[in-house]
Input
Amino acid sequence: MQPRNMSMSGVVDLAAVKAAGEAKVKAEQARAESARQGGGGAVAPASLVIDVDEAGFENDVLQRSTEVPVVIDFWAEWCEPCKQLGPLLERLAAEYNGRFVLAKVDVDANQMLMQQFGIQGIPAVFAVVAGQALPLFQGAAPESQIRQTLDQLIQVGEERFGLTGIVVDQDAGAGEAAPAEVPAGPYDALLETAAAALDANDFDGAVQAYRSVLADDPVNTEAKLGLAQAELLGRVAGLDPQQVRKDAAENPADPAAQMGAADLDLVGGHVEDAFGRLVETVRRNFGDDRDAVRVRLLELFEVIGPEDPRVTAARTALARVLF
Output
């Protein structure tokens, strides 16, 4: 599988849900109980996206997951990639029209939930289906990949647990003022072109499109992240992983060998290994070689995102060996 979201370990195989039979029985019992109590009616569109905290997690996520898959978006205000991913997930929740519910969890205010899910970096997206937690992906991801993951999630919910979603009353709240339509941004077309190129494994085309955006808007977060991912994917596309690993093992101080292995580490989801490898290579080298490795490490930081705690730790380690 060609990883597309470089800070994730890969979309999990949703078919490998543990204790599926038991969970299905519990889900059916919970739905029956909800029906006896008058639940299961149509909901307003606004109910498809909810803010969840530790106190309401049992009811808002676990109980709700017996009726519909619940997708959990772990985010924080300071997280720039979260600001790109969050609105996309909200738009998809409305588009899927009750096939899943989006639960948003602010990790700063809900540290216990973050620890319970074993989250090391954000944004991180999980799902809960019939009480079973499933990791989906971590970090920003292309819309096409997110759609594929959601479709797979919904299929598993239907086939294994009989979850057909919830009915949405589109007339609910119709009297309220409609939100203002957000105008298209000046670089939306170029960013869509870049995303399409990535989907087609046209990494050179994606790089060119992202660079065109950054030429006019050097701080564009989406373009910076996309460029770093496209460049990384382009570098690893033609590598022989076994040879790269062999060269790195035999030449621990060789910058090119270690940079190639670090790229493979990151693509494989071994973020700390990639960072640690390059920090150690910086320590072993001097002059232009050291600077080349340092620059590569900074590029990999962009792939993960500057606010990720693993990036923060690696920056500290890099500063120690440089100064």
